[in-house]
Structure formats: C-alpha cells, structure tokens
Hints:
Chain A is α/β, with parallel strands linked by helices. In chain A, 32% of the residues lie in helices and 18% in strands. A 7-stranded mixed sheet of chain A has the order 4-3-2-1-5-6-7. Chain A is globular. Chain A starts with 6 loop residues before the first strand and ends with a helix. The mean pLDDT of chain A is 96. By secondary structure, chain B is an alpha/beta fold. Chain B has 3 domains: 9-164, 2-Layer Sandwich (Aconitase, domain 3), CATH 3.30.499.10; 168-287, Aconitase, Domain 2; 291-468, Aconitase, domain 3, CATH 3.30.499.10. Chain B contains 15 helices and 19 strands. In chain B, the strands form 5 sheets. Chain B has a 5-stranded parallel sheet with strand order 5-4-3-6-7. A 5-stranded parallel sheet of chain B has the order 17-16-15-18-19, with helices on one face. Chain B has a 4-stranded parallel sheet with strand order 11-10-9-12. In chain B, helix 2 links the parallel strand 3 and strand 4. The longest helix of chain B has 17 residues, at 81-97. Classes of the chains: A alpha/beta, B alpha/beta. The interface between A and B is large, with 53 and 68 residues.
Amino acid sequence: xxxxxxxxxxxxxxxxxxxxxxxxxxxxxxxxxxxxxxxxxxxxxxxxxxxxxxxxxxxxxxxxxxxxxxxxxxxxxxxxxxxxxxxxxxxxxxxxxxxxxxxxxxxxxxxxxxxxxxxxxxxxxxxxxxxxxxxxxxxxxxxxxxxxxxxxxxxxxxxxxxxxxxxxxxxxxxxxxxxxxxxxxxxxxxxxxx
Amino acid sequence: xxxxxxxxxxxxxxxxxxxxxxxxxxxxxxxxxxxxxxxxxxxxxxxxxxxxxxxxxxxxxxxxxxxxxxxxxxxxxxxxxxxxxxxxxxxxxxxxxxxxxxxxxxxxxxxxxxxxxxxxxxxxxxxxxxxxxxxxxxxxxxxxxxxxxxxxxxxxxxxxxxxxxxxxxxxxxxxxxxxxxxxxxxxxxxxxxxxxxxxxxxxxxxxxxxxxxxxxxxxxxxxxxxxxxxxxxxxxxxxxxxxxxxxxxxxxxxxxxxxxxxxxxxxxxxxxxxxxxxxxxxxxxxxxxxxxxxxxxxxxxxxxxxxxxxxxxxxxxxxxxxxxxxxxxxxxxxxxxxxxxxxxxxxxxxxxxxxxxxxxxxxxxxxxxxxxxxxxxxxxxxxxxxxxxxxxxxxxxxxxxxxxxxxxxxxxxxxxxxxxxxxxxxxxxxxxxxxxxxxxxxxxxxxxxxxxxxxxxxxxxxxxxxxxxx
Lengths: 194, 470
Ligand code: SF4
C-alpha cells in the first residue's frame, strides 16, 4: 500500500528548464543504495551543490522563499534513464506532485507507481503557473485528483489521468496486487509459451 | 485475439502476449525474457521478500553486473564500499531466488544489452524487459523490448507480467546508400536530431527501408539502442536472414530442428500489407553525414561539419533558455563549428557501440597510428566475450601500439557511476548514448559520435570529419 492521494494544497517550486533528465534529478553516482529511502538528500545534487558541496545560491531549492510539495518543471520532464530512484528522490525530498506540459513515459510510470502525481497541463497553463509563482512565491496551488483540476489565483485547468492509475493513487493500490490476482491465468500462459 | 485488421509486427507481438485485457485496466502483458543488474534490482527483491513470494519463473530471468563495476582489476574485490555492497547484494539475491548470474569474471559477464543477444537469449517475437532504458537494443531482433522501473522489475519477478498500455506506432523508413565513413550510429543521431529528444514519446518505433535491412545485426542494435533518446518506448526491426544467421548456434538459442521450427515462426513476423502506423517518417540515407552532438541532450546533434544553431534560429522562448543553458554548460558558442575543437578524452564503449564490429572498425582506422598527445583514450569492450574475441584477433596489440587503454567489460564512463569518470570541464568524444549534464562525471562535457569519429578524434586530438580519413 502506498500513501493515498486525493487533494493537495501547497505552494510550489518552479524549475523552468526543459528536458530535465533523470541524471539531473539524481546523478548515477548516488544510485548505489539498495533501499528506497534517503535519495532526497541528493535530489538535483549537481544543481543544488557546487564542486565543494556548498549549496548554490541560484538554485531554486536553496532559495528560502520557494518551498512546497509541488514541483513545476519544463517540457519533457524525466527523460533519459529509467532509474526509479528519480521518483524516489523527489518523493523523499517531500514532493507529492510534479507539474509539466510533457513527461517522459518511463518517468511517468515510475512516479505513479510511487504515489507521486505527474500532472500534465497545457503549455499555456504552465506559463501562467511560472508567471504567478515568480510574481508571488507564496501563491498556493490546489490539486484535486478526484475532480482532476489544478487551480491557483482563481484560474483552473482540468487535467487528464488514466482512470486506472487515478483509482490506484486515490486508494494507494499497487499494480502488483492486481497482477498477483491473475496468477493462475499467467501460469497457464507461461506453460503454453515455453 | 482474432481480429482481421492488417497488423504491424509490433501489434502482432503485443497482442499475442496479452494474458488479460480487462475494462478499465492496462493490459497484463506476459514477459518472455527479463534481464536484471545490480543497480535497479535490489529494491525489487526486497519487495518480494516483504511479500514472502518467489520469482515466478527463474528460467526467464538472467542477471549480470555491469553498471557499477570497475573496468580494471576485476579479479580483485571492488574497492568502493557502496559499489561492492550493491554487487554483493545482487549475488545474494540471485543465489537466494535461484536466478542465473553472470558475475564479474564469468566468461559471459558484460553489459546487459550486449550479453543478451550474444548468448542467444534475445530472440525474435519475444517480449523483453530490463530495469534499464536501453533495453530497446534487443528490438533489433524483431521483438518488443523496453526499459522499466524498479517497481516494474518487482512485478515481473513476482508475476512474469507487467501492466502496460499499448503505445502508438511509428515507422521510420530509411532508404538509400550511406556515404563512406557513415555508420548506423550516425543514422540514429541524425534521426534524433530531426525529431528531438521527446519526438517519439508515447510511440513504439519500427525501423524499415533498405538502408536498415542492409545493416549487420550489430549495427542494427546501435540504432534500436538509442530509440529511447527520442522518447520512444522502444524500437524494432523486422527479423530476416541476417537475424537468423546471427542467432544460429548461439549458446542459449534453439538448436537443430528446434531452431528451424522457430525460424519458420519468425518468418511470419512481418508487417501486413495495409497496416496503419500512427506516424510515418521517411529519411534519405544520402542526407546523413557523420554526426556529433553539441548540447546536453541527444537531440542536439548535427552533421560534423555543420555549425551549432544561433539562439535566434530557435522558435520558442523556453527552448531558447534551455538551449543557452546547455551551451553554457558545454562551453560552446552558438553559431560556431565543432570541427577542429580540441578534446581531452575519448570513450569507446557502452551498450551502443562496444561490440566486436565496433572495435574492429576502430582498430582498422587506428592501425599503425598513435593517439594525439594529451588525449586519454579508453576502449571498454561490452562483454567478456567481446574482450576475448578482440584479443584473439590481435586488436589489443593495435590499441596498445596506438596508446589506447583496453579495459575490462562494463558500462564504464557511459554513466559516471563507477570509477571511470571524465573530470569536470573536460571534453570527451564518446560512443555512448547520453550527453546529459554530468553524465560522464560531474561537470563533464560529452560529444556523442560514432566509433569511427571517436577513433579519428583520438588520433588528431580534435573533432575530425572522418570522411577525410577513410
Ligand atoms: S552502457 Fe550506459 S546506457 Fe548501456 S546499460 Fe550501461 S549505463 Fe546504461
């Protein structure tokens, strides 16, 4: 069972960069752990810290006026490596939603499998989000998964999410529970195809 | 499933592997072959332990250690504690769950996507997954192969199935004759530069056309390998005589009569006349030159004697910002040429270009020559078998004479995880598949290119148009 997700009201962290790949989210040299925990410390490691391990002032996660459980990224978020550690790192750091106008496939699956909502908005709405948060970092964004809406400052947009994945997120279900229930059918299939 | 609609190969394989299709659920897709490695499997095995379940069918899973291994002194214990722990965890898990492991020192060890085909574990018509995005490599044999996350690795270990929505289909047709010095790596870098790093997201690609069918299996693997770099779920090539000849006699491939029976089945893996793709892209081989990337995603590539675009040439504001950030990182000027640019490192390796044919191509152009002064050159074979073969052919002598360092198999400098890293600020021309910021080590700068272009740069010490050397 994962943590259940229904609605979330939070300030958001803007990261207006396109093609943020999973090597940026969590560089390979931090993938050596054999558990799922603790990856948040190295989230965006090479953007967050300089060569001497000092926090970089410019990077948004080091700026005290930006915080919250929602990360807003540019187009093609999560491309590159299939490492699920990227989703674990974002979650472990405290994010529950990533908003972008476009997500890479594997990242999207990995996020959904870990209770992290990849929320797709239009290019136009993404621009408005970045503008609103730049103007006022205290702006609160409301994500309502049941209604499939994302709102702020009186603006709102409907977002799409697959019905099955939505049910899983709301109830904290795992794919594996469903697959395990198919055990007999899978056995037969395996025998017939060996 | 017996609908009569003409189908693409992809759909035939997919539909024949659906164990259950239920309303409101993704397809439960049966997986014929599962590859695992040390980095993305430990948490999956933990999941099995917590649930108290076994591996569903151990004969369908094979393991190797590749990402996190040193490429020197592989017979010694791994120095770095965390890396050693990860490899040891794989060992323990494989022993406990009964999974076959090609460990360090084993004659079959190597990069997971190199050893599968090499051992005849990768066959046409299969569904293949691995917790690694370059699983698309295996598609060169006419199968559905794609990368998955660790939760999905756990699903496959536990149930031999995965829950998936069927992606859309794209056909990329390439016809014509390639110029001398232009390799399959150049084809795929060219394609990605045309459709961008996200242009095939949501699609499964089929590569077709006479340029593709004229390629060897190893060259085809290079193309399918990089399908993920344009966002595609995977990429495949219809199996043909070239495919069957490659498979014949390999360790775990069907042998004798069983092989002939299989070939008869595999011959049916063709796209039906009239099958519809969601998207079709046509490319002329004549337009492709030796390629090089200048930016920090594989879509930022060009023919080696072109110039980098200027900011004004990009349409979107967002794109301009990301472009400038990328060139800043690379220390390059918009509008400039890369030809003649000095490089510091050359990496010939990775699941994209570390097979025996790649090493032969490099050896051929390097024979009797020496690397440029001050340039560090690493040749890292993709597997133990490739290493043994290279030595049997005397390629090691050629590399040695040229001042290249031939190492032991592993992912090496492809991902900046193990000991092989490119230092901050240094330029590396690399035959791998990703030029992301820090991919080869913190602040390293990567130019992706073919093995020939990398070899040419090793000799001249500069970005070089290999067409002038061949
Ligand atoms: S060689 Fe590189 S791309 Fe290939 S499996 Fe290893 S790390 Fe991944």
